[in-house]
Amino acid sequence: MALRTVDVELGTRRYPIHIGPGLLDDAARLAALAPGRHVLIVTDANVAPHWLARVEAAFAGKQRATHVLPPGEQEKTLERFGDLMGALARLGASRDATLVALGGGVVGDLTGFAAACWMRGVRFVQLPTTLLAMVDSSVGGKTAVDLPEGKNLVGAFHQPAAVLADTATLATLPDRELRAGLAEVLKYGALGDAAFFERVHALAPALLARDPGALAEVIATSCAHKAGIVARDETETGERMLLNLGHTFGHAIEAVQGFGGLVHGEAVAVGMGLAARLSAELGLAPAADADRLITALRALDLPTEVPAGLDPDALLARMRLDKKNLSGTLRLVLWRGIGAAFVATGIDESAVRRVLAG
Ligand SMILES: NC(=O)c1ccc[n+]([C@@H]2O[C@H](COP(=O)([O-])OP(=O)(O)OC[C@H]3O[C@@H](n4cnc5c(N)ncnc54)[C@H](O)[C@@H]3O)[C@@H](O)[C@H]2O)c1
User: Fold this and answer.
1) pLDDT by residue (tens digit) across 54-64?
2) Do 156 and 193 have their domain in common?
3) 162 and 203 inside one domain
4) Are residue 99 and residue 237 in the same domain, yes or no?
5) Which of 113, 148, 172 is the last residue of a domain?
6) Where does the pLDDT of residue 233 fall: very low under 50, low under 70, confident under 90, or very high at 90 and above?
């Protein structure tokens, strides 16, 4: 299958996202990603057994070290960040070092933040191995760790030098994580591209069956959307906020469930459905579009209802804490219909509560 490339253009800087099967087997391409002497490869214990050996082999000529994290969001911490600083120090990493993030969004966010901070900023490359990381977290330069008080509270904007999305790595990804990534794929259509929305819906059976051609197509289109949005609004002062469609609802669900219930992409799926229903409730969009979104999410085998037993008032209380809110009023991404999301402020909380209560 042909390799696809999407360029991210940020003023005078630019970097490529390469997408296709077998990229991690291309040792020469990988080696070229690290022009300096030192390489620190960061991955997690789920990814390492399947994919680490070929990456280590590609950087065999370098002074390198590998850091394998335990998997999971609970590892995206300042403590693990400190471990990476220690690993870089022991390696003697100089300013021309390259950090290589091999894994999902947790590895990517943590490694990117370490790269942003080591010697005030060194090169890093993303080798995403989850669908979510390929279409979202590896692109755009947001890096962060979590605090007990909240997700992604400490971080930096630091763009990778390149992203290599080897679609073959998705073969070992659990089904649930694949579906979570598909929620983010559908999101690009829902927020700004009605034709892509229909395309993803039509491809649902092929995507769930991990058809390589279907996956490569939707990954490339998603990356092109993300690259365009990031190019126009790198630091999220406007359009980039639209990428949060469904996220304020979704984060509230994740938080009220104590981050042990729905995974992020599933919560975003429910959240997108709620945003669409709220838009209809407020008379901003046709109810039929909300129905079409719910149908497409179900075709992707994603949840569309608030999990049973969650208190609407507890969810609303969490939504009030969202970073996007302005001067005490709710700010949410809503839509005027499929492909037409916008940022809405001063939203009537009683309507939000009605939607949360189903
Ligand atoms: N920086 C951004 O712009 C941005 C955007 C969206 C999300 N994020 C962050 O991304 C994180 C979520 O990313 P994620 O969904 O990739 O989660 P993740 O990194 O936790 O990966 C999900 C699970 O899949 C496993 N895994 C990864 N690749 C695998 C493979 N090929 N085979 C087998 N198992 C594999 C991981 O070990 C983990 O258990 C969150 O921390 C979120 O805040 C960041």
Assistant:
1) 999 999 999 99
2) no
3) no
4) no
5) 172
6) very high
Cα of 159 from ligand 1 centre, angstroms: 18
> In angstroms, rounded to a whole number, what is the distance separating the alpha carbons of residues 218 and 135?
9
Domain check: are 139 and 210 in the same one?
A: no
The one-letter amino acid code at 89 reads: A
Name the domain count of the chain.
2
pLDDT of res. 121: 98
Structural contact between residues 260 and 250, judged by C-beta atoms closer than 8 angstroms: no
User: Does 179 lie in the same domain as 58?
Assistant: no
CA 76 to ligand 1: nearest atom: 41
The pLDDT value recorded for residue 258 is: 87
Please give the pLDDT value at position 1: 73
Residues 37 and 151 in one domain: yes
| Number of the ligand 1 atom closest to the C-alpha atom of 106 | 19
Does the annotation mark 236 as catalytic? yes
Whether residues 183 and 132 fall in one domain: no
Rounded to the nearest angstrom, the distance between the alpha carbon of 99 and the centre of ligand 1 is: 17
The Cα 353–Cα 310 span in angstroms is 12
Select from 147, 172, 197 the last residue of a domain: 172
CA–CA dist 265, 12 (Å, integer): 33
**Better pLDDT: 13 or 224:** 224
Query: Any idea what the CATH number is for the domain that residue 319 is in?
Result: 1.20.1090.10
CB 131 within 8 A of CB 170: yes
Q: Residue 190's domain spans which residues?
A: 175-356
Distance 174 CA to ligand 1 centre (A): 11
Residue of 137, 145, 247 to test ligand 1 pocket, by largest number of atoms within 8 Å of CB? 137
From the candidates 177, 184, 239, 254, which is the catalytic residue?
184
Decide if 38 is catalytic.
no
Residues framing ligand 1 (Cβ under 6 A): 44, 46-47, 50, 71-73, 76, 103-107, 109, 129-130, 132-133, 136-137, 140, 142, 151-152, 169, 172-173, 177, 180, 264
255 in the same domain as 192:
yes
- The whole-number pLDDT of residue 2 equals 83
> In a 3-state reduction of DSSP, which class is residue 187?
helix
pTM of the model: 0.96
pLDDT at residue 66 is higher than 80: yes
State the alpha helices, DSSP H only, in 259-311: 264-281, 287-299
Q: What is the DSSP letter of 329?
A: B
